[in-house]
Amino acid sequence: MLFFDNPPLHSASRAPGLCARERLASLLVMLIFFGVISSSQALYASEAAAPQALSDDEITVVSYDESDYSDPLMCFNRSIFTFNDVSYRYAFIPIAKGYRYITPDPVETGISNVFANIKAPIHIVNHLLQWQPRKAGSSTARFLINTTIGIAGIFDPAAAWFSLPKNETGFSDTLAHYGSGYGTFLVLPFVGPADLRSGTGIVADYFLNPIPYITEQPDSSYIMAGDKLQAFAPQAESYETLRAKSDDPYLFFRNMYLQGILRDQQYQPSADNNKPDNK
């Protein structure tokens, strides 16, 4: 099973007080995640984890029976989804479009490279936690080369000159490495569709991000908000396009996320890439 077993929930048979109880239980999740996630670097996992770039008309669909899936936090998730949807359409998307309009592509690439480089400790630590010292060493070498020769990470000479490509990972992957399942489906403030494992990973990776340690508030929040903006910008128009095609945006994006998980399981990396390295 991808998710914890829960009895199927159907809107027509829900007890009157059930949503209220779910909101109270879900409030604990919101209190943990809300303050951290609003400035995190997360993207929609369903898009970021796709095995290859696909157009809107070529999205890979796998077998998935919606009626078999229980969404125990639907009341909470719908509320957060509505909040996110309004935030995206009336704030983030216009700002993201303006950012892409005024920023030349080479500058946009350089900004993305800087943020990717400064977050290298996230990948290094998690590679070590996954018993992959070679990948941790490669990520460390990338960080040192790009920070120096690449001028604070603006350029990527590690890949261009030293054949050291990105090898990103996070605490969610570390949990998966030790057998953790996805957990229940969640919609997180500002982040969007996620699950219990990826949400936990986002929080853990936040504490491995150097930005809060090398800058002071409110500068840290501004910088991390800029990171989220530059990461979200390329997705802004696709969100609008997909939303316009859906009758129920919440169900559409939830099901797309769940289908992404099933699809990714069918495109698992080879065993050699997943096993610990001892050299």
Compact description:
The chain has 279 residues and is mainly alpha-helical. The protein has helices at residues 18-37, 45-48, 74-102, 105-118, 120-129, 133-148, 157-160, 171-177, 196-208, 211-214, 219-232, 236-244, 249-266, 271-274, and strands at 185-188, 192-195.
Side-by-side strand order of the widest sheet: 1-2
Question: Over all CA atoms, what is the radius of gyration?
Answer: 20 Å
Low-pLDDT runs of 5+ residues are 1-18, 20-63
Question: Helical element count?
Answer: 14
Derived from helix and strand composition plus strand pairing, the structural class reads mainly alpha
Number of strands: 2
Describe the structure.
The protein has 279 residues and is an all-alpha fold. The chain is 59% helix and 3% strand. The protein has a two-stranded antiparallel ribbon with strand order 1-2. A hairpin with a 3-residue loop joins strand 1 and strand 2 (192-195). The model is unreliable at 1-18 and 20-63 (pLDDT under 50).
Secondary structure blueprint with pairings:
Layout: H1 18-37, H2 45-48, H3 74-102, H4 105-118, H5 120-129, H6 133-148, H7 157-160, H8 171-177, E1 185-188, E2 192-195, H9 196-208, H10 211-214, H11 219-232, H12 236-244, H13 249-266, H14 271-274
Antiparallel strand pairs: 1-2
Write out key terms for the chains shown.
279 residues, 14 helices, disordered N terminus, mainly alpha, globular, two-stranded antiparallel sheet
